[in-house]
Structures
1.
Amino acid sequence: MQNKTQENNQTKIIHITKDINISFSAHNILGKFAFNINESQETNLIIDFSNVNFISANQFAVLGCIMEAFKDNNKEKRLQIFGINDRIKKIIQKNGFGRYIGLERKRDEFNTVIPYKVFGEYEIVEYEKYLTLSLFGRDDLPAMSDAVRSTIQDYLLELFKNVHDHTTSKKVHTCGQYFPRSSKLFFTIADSGETVQHNVCSYMGKYNKDIPDNCLNWALQEGNSTREGDSPGGLGLSLIKSFIALNKGEFHIISGAECFEFGCHGERYKNMEYLFPGTIVTIGFNLNDNDKYFLNSEIDSDIIF
C-alpha cells in the first residue's frame, strides 16, 4: 500500500495495491489502511482499489468499520472509493455494501453471502435475529445439536455485548461469504472500540496486577475476564476451538497490535505491523463436513462426530 498526495494538498490518494484475503498479511493491510486514513490531514481522501483483484467479501465488515469510524470522527472530511473491479462489484451488490458506492442491490441467487449489516450498540435483538436468519438459518452448515448451535450463537452474541460493555464503540459491523471452491463459509464481526490490550492493561493496572506479555492470549484463557462481578470469562471459546479443530475450519481474532489464528495447523499468536483500531473476529466454517456435533453433557463423553 502506498500513499500519494496530489498537487492539491487538500486531497490524498491512498492506493491499496494488494488483494485482501483472510490471512495475517491481509489483516496487516487493513491495519495499515486504518492508520493511513486516520493520520491523514487532507480533507478529501480517495481510496484507490484499482490494483486489487480480490477482496474476501467478509472483510467488507472490516473495511466498513474502518471507513465509518473515520467518517464519524471526521465530519468535515470526505471519503471516496475508486477503482473497484467488476468482480468485486458483483459481490458487494449482493451483500449490500455496494450502496456505499452507488451500486444497486442484486439478488444472491446461489446463497453465497451473509449480508453486510451495521448494528447500533443497543440493537442486540436485531443482531440475534440476523444471526438466526442469515447464518444459523443456512441448511448447509455442519450438522450440530441445538445445544452446540446455541453455544456458538451465544458466543457471537457475547462478542456483541463486549462492544457495549468494554468499549466506547457505538456500532458493530458484520457480514460473511461462502467460497464454493474451498467449501468455507467465513463470518466476520468488527468494531472500532478500545482494543483487548487496552482493556486488559487498564484492568491489571486497576488491581495492581502484572500485565501479561500477550493480552489477547490472556483474554482468551478460560476464566479470564476484565468484566466486573461474578461473570466468568472465556464463555463458549473452548467449544468454538473444539468445533473448529474437528470441523477443520478457521478462527481469527485481531485486536490492536495482537493477532490470534487457529485452524487445522494449530494456533499461533503474532504481532501486527500496524495495529487495528478495534477488534475483528472471524469464524470460518468448513461446509464440506458430514459429521454431527454434540456437547459433552448431551452424550456424557467428549464432543463426537
2.
Amino acid sequence: MLVGTIGDLTFYKRGNGYFVREKGGNKPKAVMTEEEFLRSYENSLEFQLATRHGHGIRTALRGIVYGLQEVGNSGKQAGKIMRCIRTNPVGERGKRKLHPATLAEYLEGHEFNSRSTLPVNFELYESGGLNVNVSRIMGMVDVIFDSHDPTTDIVAPGLADEYSFVAGVAWWDGTENDVQGSVRCGWRGNWAESTRYDVENTSVTAPVLQPVFPVGFSGLLVVVAGIRYWKDDGTADGFWLRLQSCLRVVKVEG
C-alpha cells in the first residue's frame, strides 16, 4: 500500500483503509490571508473549537469513554457541536462560542460507539426504561435503569458473562481553557458504575447510578449512560468486549 504523492495523485491512509485523490488543495497561508478563502478560514476556526469541546467532554468522562470509540466518531461529535456553535447569536463568524441553549438539540442521542448503541443493547430503552433526574441543589444526577430480565432485555455479545451499567456527567465552566492537561476546554466530569450482573440472571432490580457535580452548579451539563461487558474472571477480554460496550448522551441541560 502506498502513502505519498506520485505525479498528480496523492495516496494516503485513513482509519483502516487506503485512499487516493488528485494532488491539489489550497496552501494554508492563502486560506488564512486571501479574501476569497475567508469563509473557509472562519469555518475552520469554529470546527477547531468544536473539536476541542468534543475532546474536553471525552477527557472529562475518560474512565467510561476509553476503548469505545470507532474511527471517525470524534469527527461526528465535533460536527454536531459545530452546528451548535453556529446557532450562537453572539459573535462574528469564526469567533462564535459554544451555545449552551441549543447543545441539547444537536448532542442528545449521540452514541460514542455507533457500532453498539444503548437502545440496541437495552431493550427497554425505547419504551422509557431509562430515567434521568438532575438535582442542582444536591449536585447529583440520578440515572435509573428499569428492573429487567437480562436474558431478554440485555442483548449481550456472545463472549460476555457479565455486564454493568455506567453513567457520567460532564460540566462546562464557561471557559475554553486547558488546565494542566487534564481539563480540556473548560470541561470536568465524574462517573459511576454499578455492580456486575450475570447475563443469565432472570431478574435485576432497578439499578440507580449517581454521578456527582459541584453543588449549586448552574451551567451546562452533559449526562451519559451505557453498558459495559465482562468475562466472569473480571477481565474485559482484551479489546473486543470494549468494542461491544455502549455509551450514549442521554441528557443535555444548561
